[in-house]
Every structure is written in C-alpha cells, then in structure tokens.
Amino acid sequence: MSAALLRRGLELLASTEAPRAAPGQAKASGAPVKRTRRARAKAAQALKLRNSAKGKVPKSALDEYQKRQCQDHLKANLKFMTSVRSTVSESVTQQILQQNQGRKACDRIVTKTKKKKKKAEGTVFTEEDFQKFQREYFGN
Fold first, then answer.
1. Disordered: where is this region (predicted)?
2. pLDDT of 26 above 60
C-alpha cells in the first residue's frame, strides 16, 4: 500500500472521529494572517492537488485495499458442494471431462491400443500367374 493511500485513509478516519478544520486553513479571528512565501506556495500547490470535480467523494483507502485483495471462496464453495448431492451418470461426467480437456497431446489421456500382429508377407500371385504374365508380355 502506498504512503499516499495510507495518509488518505488516516485523514478520513480522523475526520470521522472529530470534525476539525482542514490543515492549512487559519481560524477566522478577524485579523488577516501573514504567510511566508513558502507557506503561500505550499497552500497554492495543495489547492491544485485537491480534488476539483464537483460532487466527487474521496474513496476510503481501506475500502480500496479490501477491494483489491483476493477473496477466498473456498468455504462457501465447499458448503455449496457438500449441500448439493445430485448424482450424475458416469457417461455424462466422462463427456464433461473430455470436453474440458485441452487439445495438446500432453493433456490427452493415453489409451492402450492393441497392436495387430503382422502376418507374414506373401505375394498374392502364384508361380503360374508369373509364367502366364511372362508369356503374354514377352511373347514367349
């Protein structure tokens, strides 16, 4: 958390406890207050930095911090999951799991496939077919 947010939060907390005059403002005692050159420059810079949008309320630093924090939903999720007891068929759960799998090869489930045994390689033609072909082709 930044120092500016912390300072803003402390200012907001202080303003809720007891309303006070803003720092840098003089109490109206009737007499004009003389300021040094540095004090006037600092006051002018504070006026420039002040939020100038009409109707805009400064945000609480604590609310901003809590909003940005990651919320843990584990308890609520566990409570919901344990309270809901619906049985779904095995085929539906397998279909859901299959749809949610990635498309990469490392995400796929390896299934064992049976390899077919290779038969001894042989020719379809017999010796007689070769003889017949040789006679027809070469004319012997």
1. 14-38
2. no
